[in-house]
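Shift notes (night). Ran Large ribosomal subunit protein bL33 while the centrifuge was going.
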Amino acid sequence: MRVKVLMQCTECKRRNYSTMKNKKNTTGRIELNKYCPFDKKHTLHKETK
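Came back to this:
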């Protein structure tokens, strides 16, 4: 089952991205390096509830 998740920047704490993940294959939280338009650089983004 695929669910929609929000990605939050670890530096500015804003929710910049939304993505889909498969709960069956990925049971933990996603951590990706994404571009933050507010910081104007690539930062670590973590999945929020």
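The longest strand covers residues 2-9. The domain at 2-47 is CATH 2.20.28.120 (Rubrerythrin, domain 2).
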